[in-house]
Amino acid sequence: MAKTTYYVPIGPIHPALKEPIRVEAEVEGEKIVKVDVKRGFAHRGIEYMGMKRNAIQTLYLSERICGICSISHPYAFVIGSEKALGIEAPPRAQYIRPIIAELERIHSHILWIGVIAHEIGFDSLLFWTWKGREKVLDVLELITGNRINYAMYMIGGVRRDLKESHIKALRDMITYYWEFTEHMKEVFLSDPVYKARTRGVAQVPKDMALKLNLVGPTARAAGLRMDIRQDIPFDAYADMDVKAVVPQDIVGEVRGDAYDATMVRIYEIEQSLDIIEYCIDNLPEGRILAIPNYIALLNKIKKTAGEAIGAHEAPRGEVVHYLKYDGTRDGPSVWKVVAPSYNNINSWGYCLLGAEVADIPVVVAYIDPCLCCNDRVAVVRDSTGKMLDYSFIHKKAVEKTRALEKELGVRK
Amino acid sequence: MGKLTSFKRSLWVFHASGGSCNGCDIEIIAALTPRYDAERFGIKLVGSPRHADVLLVTGAIPRDFADKLRRIYEQMPDPKAVIAVGNCGTSGGVFYDSYNIVGPIDEIIPVDVYVPGCPPRPEAIVDAVVKAWLKLEKLEKQLEGKEE
Questions:
Q1: What's the distance, CA B84 to chain centroid?
Q2: Which residues of A touch B59 (CB under 8 A)?
Q3: What pLDDT does residue A165 have?
Q4: pLDDT (tens digit per residue) in B100-141
């Protein structure tokens, strides 16, 4: 029989992917019949390094897990550390933190909207959205001093205070973005070509989204009401009523495709604007750090034992940090990071099967993958505490295959 | 900047992201978009290293990625220049003591221009591309001399 399928390797370096990952697809004509995702090209061993450094150094290392979520990872880290160490941030810091986190969400969502426009061939839209994104980067630079990697958070507070001039810039920005999101809705959601290109592409139904453990805007686009800010509120989020943005509240129906994902993200920008406005209207006075002296802070960490989980809703979904301090050194003795893209990449296999080759970029981009976030390593230990290395697990796998062969009566 | 005499075409750039945190990568895209607009000089990102004059590399290089980076470099036509963007690419940065990092970019392939910063501003990246352009000028002249 003649060969009917062709093998299409994509990556690890490919113009459709901004980061290294490999998608291997087998195609029959235009249809994808088999797909496999390989990851791990961006693994840097961050958790291992963090467990050797002190907590303040590790906090800024956590910022470098991902340059786009460079607030989300430190946020989860400080929430977890504060729970484990029994420190509480002053009220003013608890209101400044969500402002920075929501600014990051705005820039990340606009970035994604530009990228998806680029993937389906609207390059002028990419340039237009990224022009709009510069405004929020200017505000972030004014407040924190850098466009990306802000070094704003600290265990027990924030490092920089908000001044009157910052609040004025924030209010200017809010008016700018209310206009900008209205314009974006017109350009993206009302455009017939955009609708035709994204409706039904990368479609995940609600029960499948639950089964694949999707998180963040990807899960909300499928109609699941889940949001860390709503489910486990922390800091100033507990004072306001944050509700997950889902398509059924906006247009009354859920399809769970790339179009719905665009809609959810545009409406989440508006939600972020509301949160920022609430925070600057109700900003309490007072200190910004619980323990202003870093040496005193490190000494306290050295003497305190405790473990906790810190979670934050990053632009891409929930980010969870597990931290354990054993009271002997000034850094975490165990640090485990779970990033949202790790769950969301599960949907690629499901969405790509039966799709067309031309849809691969849309499927890959619609979850807003962040591969530097998710390349972690897992070490498996057996009950005696012995570490199982790869060759041992491989031996086990071969043994199981041989046993099955015997059972099924297959002869070699 | 001197007058461009021998390198008489638009500068095409290939961008390879190693173990970077994405910070430098989005600043590279920001350098191309309207605020900084490097495209008005004809500088543009291309999809294949075989079309590129300049290779932009970000991040410290993980073990899995080193041979792939070497292959990209070898695929580029001469004259070529390499720019290392960001602290991790120039020196290892915060990842200096990782078990899975084989080193900064210049331990894998020769680097011509270094852009330190975490991440560097788009202006710095555009400046680095201009510096690489001058280097390409020199290389092109050498190549022409050889042919004569």
A1: 5
A2: 42
A3: 93
A4: 888 888 889 999 999 998 889 999 988 888 888 888 888 888
Query: Is residue B37 situated within a structural domain?
Result: yes
Check residue A275 and give its pLDDT.
93
Residue B43 one-letter amino acid: I
Q: Chain B: residue nearest A375 by CA?
A: B19
pLDDT of A90 above 90: yes
Distance CA A22, CA A19 (A): 10
Q: Which residues contact A150 (CB under 8 A, 6 or more apart)?
A: A63, A70, A71, A100, A140, A144
- pLDDT reading at A1 higher than 80: no
Q: Which of A40, A65, A137 sits opposite B64 (nearest CB)?
A: A40
Between B26, B60, B121, which is nearest A68 by CB? B26
Q: How far apart are CA A394 and CA B82, in angstroms?
A: 40
- Reported as a pLDDT band with limits 50, 70 and 90, residue B146 is low
Give the DSSP letter of residue A283: P
- A286, two tokens: 């007072």
Chain A: closest CA distance from residue B143 (Å):
29
Instruction: Verify whether the Cβ–Cβ distance A372 to B30 is below 8 Å.
Output: no
The count of structural domains within chain B is 1
Residue A38: strand, helix, or coil: strand
Q: Does B6 map to a domain?
A: no
- Tell whether B3 is covered by a domain: no
The pLDDT tens digits of the residues spanning A293-306 come to 999 999 999 999 99
Contact between B85 and B100 (Cβ < 8 Å): no
Share of chain B above pLDDT 90, in %: 14
pLDDT, one tens digit per residue, over A314-325 is 998 888 999 999
pLDDT (0 to 100) of residue A405: 77
Q: Closest to B98 (Cβ–Cβ): which among A45, A148, A370?
A: A45
Residue of B nearest to A376 (CA): B100
Answer whether residue A221 shows pLDDT above 80.
yes
Mean pLDDT value of segment B61-89: 88
Indicate the length of chain B as a whole number: 148
Query: From the CA of B135, how many Å to the nearest CA of chain A?
Result: 26
pLDDT of residue B3: 57
Quick one: which H or E segment has residue A310?
A: strand A305-314
Asked, for residue B27, whether it belongs to a domain, the answer is: yes
What range defines the domain where residue B50 resides? Answer: 12-147
A40: distance to nearest CA of chain B, Å?
Answer: 8
CA atoms lying within 13 Å on the CB side of residue A14? 16
Query: Chain B residue with minimal CA distance to A57?
Result: B94
**How many Å apart are CA A153 and CA B14, to the nearest integer?**
35
Q: What is the CATH number of the domain that holds B101?
A: 3.40.50.12280
